[in-house]
Amino acid sequence: MKNIMVGDLVRILNEWAVQNPWMKGHFGQPQVGLVIKDFGEIPQCVVLIAGEEKVIRKSSLEVLCK
Question: What would you measure as the largest C-alpha separation in the chain, in angstroms?
Answer without folding.
Answer: 32
